Amino acid sequence: MSKVFPKWTNALPLKIVVFVFVFVTTLLAGITYYVTPKYVRVGYEPTQPVPYDHSFHVNELGLDCRYCHDKVDQSDVANIPAADTCMKCHSMIKTDSPLLAPIRESYATGEPVAWERVHEVPDYVYFSHQAHVNRGVSCVECHGRVDEMEVVSHAEPMSMSWCLDCHRHPEEVLRPIDKVFDLDWEHPGGKQGQIKDGHMFVEERNITPPESCTGCHR
Amino acid sequence: MKRAPYTHPEAELSGPRYWRSLDDLSQSPEFLAQVEREFGPEASEMNEVDRRHFFKIMAASFAIGGLGFAGCRRPESHILPHSKMPEHQIPGQALYYATGFPLRGETLPLLVETHTGRPTKIEGNDDHKGYKGGTTRKAQAAILDLYDPDRASAHTKGTAKISNADVNDLLASLNKKYAASNGKGVAILAESSSSPTRLRLKKAFLKAFPQATWAEYDAIDATNAGIAAAKVTGNDTLQPKYDLTKASRILAVDADFLDEEQGAVQFSKQFADGRRIRSSKEDMNRLYSVESNFSLTGAMADHRKRLASSQMVSFLAAVALEINLGVEGNALKPVLNPLAGKLDAATKEWAAKCAEDLASHKGESLVFVGQHLSPEAHALGLLVNEKLGNLKKTVSLVSVDNGKTASIRDLADSIKAGSVESLVVLGGNPVYNAPADLDFAELIGKVGEVIRVGYYNDETSEKASYHILQAHFLESWGDGRTYGGDVVAQQPMILPLFDGVSEIEVLARLVGEANSDGYSQVYATFQSDNGNGGKRAFEAYLNTGFVEAGYKTSNSNVSGLELADLLKGFTAPAAPTSKDNLEVRFLNDATVDDGRYINNGWLQECPDPMTKLTWDNAIIISPALAKDLDIVAADSAIQVARKNPNKVRDGAQFAKVATITVDGREVTGAIHIQPGLDSYTVVLPLGYGRTKTGRVGSASGFSAYAIRSASAFLANASLALTGQEYQLAETQEHWSMEGRAIVRETNLDDYQKDPTWVDHMGMESHSPAIYGADADMPTQQKITETPRGGSMYEHPDLTGVHQWGMSIDLNVCTGCNSCVIACQSENNIPIVGRDQVRRGREMHWIRLDRYFSSGSKDNTEIPEDPQVSLQPIACMQCETAPCETVCPVNATVHDEEGLNAMAYNRCIGTRYCANNCPYKVRRFNFFDYQQRQLDKLYMGPLAPKGMPELVQMAQNPDVSVRMRGVMEKCTFCVQRINQAKIAQQAKAGDSDDVRVKDGTIKVACEQSCPTDAIVFGDLKDPKSRVSELRENERTYSLLGYLNTRPRTTFMARVRNPNPAMPDYHDMPLSKKEYKAKAPKAAKHDSHDSHSDSEGGHH
């Protein structure tokens, strides 16, 4: 029988076991890292039809988030501004900038500007902006420091577990209502101060973030 | 980590870069051609494709799919904001506009939900005092008509498309041509309408063309009441209008005023208000019903008499003879006596006792005569009402101006005489539904030029020279009147999808008005009718949706002498007596109406409220006739459910096919046996058997118009079996509760004697205490702590701010099915097609169970005079839900506020939950009903995929569209709950005022309910309406002994029979059956005896 199976085959079962173990572990580790929103989504930074510079408009000109995203506190979706919002200023300033051509064209023809979508949740997730910004959750918690971005990029993974982290510990992010659109703001008392005040806000505002399916899925 | 900016490839699409299906990927011409198709006329089989062929194609498709890893790219999507932001619009938030739903002589005030300019859901206008937000199933389904892929999409001349400008030229040339001849040679055939603008234009038309003919025709005719009122008052603008608000004794004479009569929504509200008792001390109204068909009004009646429609005049004469006719009695008695003499003794006694009860409630009784009955019947009804002192109290004669109108018979005579050169058919479908003896299809060929204005390309369009595309009422300006005469604004929600024009625009162009657009026309009417309030008054009118104009009540009296004169020439027809001498009653179909909604999938699949048939009509016959025909038992539905399991294939009813012959005309259809009909009356629902319609409506039922020559009923018909069988699609095979306490009913006097009777019915009256030692805990505590009682399981505490619950009052629910369609529209529920309904796979989240009870113990015979109990059933949101414990993947779990959540994306489709649900409310997507054509379901991935773009527009963006293999069920409209909570939170800001006020959330079924039988709210709030109702002594839990602790509770039904009546039962028949089922040696003295088995009904 030894003619059939040469000697080196004796070690084969062990090798197979080791190989399978290493392969499966690597595969799982790979999937966990590379195929989850943390890797796939964070850092996504598409080129927009008009290179709108958030940091310039916010820091240099002092625009509030709600100058353009004016329905964010009245609606579930934070609207992307219509061309006429841009034209409020740009009909007077930089009127012939080639970068603004798509805006002027949209304003003239009525055809929409096709902005690249950066943040997207699946169709079966119903997220509401107004429920968050009116209750003391700042834009920065989900969108990052947009006020410092020249090109908007995806800052947070926006996975379900990431949502739930916050829904389980709202005290870590709740802030005074007047600081919601101040992306620069941090609790002067540091993390400890934030948690202490956060608990107070949870109490005062009767914050009960839903942790069950119906909160987001309909 | 920061990565280089990601640049997408060029935006223009040369082909799909990622694909949703293999067919999509291949982009074959066949696929692209078929993408638009969704519904097919007939069910299909897998046999078309053999297995080998299937694998061959699959293999090939996968090979293509592997090329280039096209599917691995990140889906790129765009946000397309407006160029200029429209006023009032907030992206993501719904906007509501007031409008009206026109149907014949009535317009229903509506509020329509729109999302970014597209209407998605129809709601009633809560502000109107008469309708109070109630709607009908037909109004609810109008959304789907708007987005029907089969609707006409272009103006045509013959088969060639013509433009809007061509249509304008055509109408202008007609105007020019006939202005010269004073209108000689032009005729208009329209449907009746309540629109003041149309009336104004009609008058303008007849003024401009004095010799023209304006004819109106409705397949469902309601003009007889007016003819009668004109005769007995001498004023030909008068019409009787009923008001049930103060009516405590109501006699419905062949009148289905809760469902099919004009004003039904308003009547339902008024009727329900007279029955909505909150304690045993309150009194309620009493309804008598005499009818040939078994209608929903008959089902609600406290006393019901079966009688052929032709006998109604005699019946009314018998009633009239029993009341004090005063001095006119001398003239009337000689004509009334021979009429009443035609009735048998039992009917006469019934009429006498009923008349006695009416007479003892003078001024608050009402005789309601069905709109299809003859002028004689209406005139008699008016007389009786006057003698009972009901005029101006429960019935008023109001002045309704409708201009000069000819009938379709006048028009037919003119056509025969050759005096019609141009015929404009405004809406309607006369070639399909005109009286059979006119042979309209041939007649219309004799007219030189037929211009047809219609929504669909139908039978009439085929015969027309021009088809002018009519806009949907949600796309056009208009107006109309409610039953009481209030003027309702009809605003467009969206620009016409296909360039259609409205009826009033066509008329305005025909009479040569300068500003012929709909808005100007409606504005002009408003200004002339309501004083010159200017734009501001008009905007207020659009904002509220109506002005309370009301018809003017007349002081005219009913003349008994005129009536005697009218009745002198009338001989009472003989009653039908055998199967060779049948009476045929034609019925406005409960779902497809006169045929106009045949292509509406929601309505086709909505079960008929009484027969529970979908997708087809049937020849509806009584059990007595079935016996005569020797088809009794073995094939009737009642036996299918009980005795003959071999006949149940795929859960469908195999019906005998028969041919019915009247006056030498015949029609063939399937027989459905329905208890409660007059023994020798055959009921034929109209509206089916269309020869030219869309994909949903074709091959559906038979056309009863083929034999309908004159009125709503015909004598001397005969019926013969053909020997064939047809499979009807029915949603409820089970007809009876068989003595179980599912719907709990009692009589009013019993209720007064024992206010807590409801707790003494059903198993839970002597099963182990459900709440154990905590039985006396207040409701608000019970629902949050869910005490364990006798249960094995630990129950979780429900911690939410709100605890949702629902109460359904069976005493006022009329079973109209409006909630079914409202739910379908709100929750994106698919239709599944006839074949799937036959297999019991309909997807409705809420259904109406209809039970017959005869009082006998075993129900082996089909009862002739059953009582009907109706019960809406949706997910009960059990606190200790049996479905949750069996789900292997936690796809159905409880949320903090007591909702039984269903996470579609977790569901893997084991269907364990549906098996474990005692209420049978869970629905499974056996196929991708939303994405696949219904006639190609069994072809699986080989069939084309995708929802037509037009149908996509009808979907509610706030609700997920479910896919194949997923379980779904009622969610208590969780989207509405969440929206209300979010709105409240946004309002609360940094305060703690997060509790939603009672009444803010109206779930879809509740909103549409014409009787307010459904109340939804927060049980944690002891002052909410639902909490109060839950504390009511009539409240019970369905199958409560299972310890499911449903959040939806029912309020038991109370009947109010008159002990003096010959057909008095001292308890409702279902309760009698329940008691009869009880074991002989009942030991429980303090309880009513229980049923031996409960549950598992459908």
Automatic annotation (TrEMBL), chain A:
Keyword Heme appears in the UniProt entry: no
A family per Pfam: Cytochrome_C7
Keyword Iron: no
Domain of life from the UniProt record: Bacteria
Keyword field: Membrane, Transmembrane, Transmembrane helix
Gene3D superfamilies in alphabetical order: Cytochrome C3 (3.90.10.10)
Transmembrane intervals: 12-35
InterPro entries hit by this protein: Cyt_c7-like (IPR029467), Multihaem_cyt_sf (IPR036280)
Start and end residues of each Cytochrome c7-like domain: 125-218
SUPFAM superfamilies: Multiheme cytochromes (SSF48695)
UniProt-recorded name of the protein: Cytochrome c3 family protein
UniProtKB/TrEMBL annotation, chain B:
Segments for region (Disordered): 1057-1098
SUPFAM superfamilies: 4Fe-4S ferredoxins, Formate dehydrogenase/DMSO reductase, domains 1-3
Gene3D superfamilies on file: 3.30.70.20, ADC-like domains
Compositional bias ranges of the Basic and acidic residues kind: 1063-1098
Domain named 4Fe-4S ferredoxin-type: residues: 804-834, 866-897
InterPro entries found in the cross-reference section: 4Fe4S_Fe-S-bd (IPR017896), TAT_var_transloc_signal_dom (IPR030948)
Taxonomic superkingdom: Bacteria
Protein name: TAT-variant-translocated molybdopterin oxidoreductase
Native species: Pelagicoccus mobilis
Lineage: Bacteria, Pseudomonadati, Verrucomicrobiota, Opitutia, Puniceicoccales
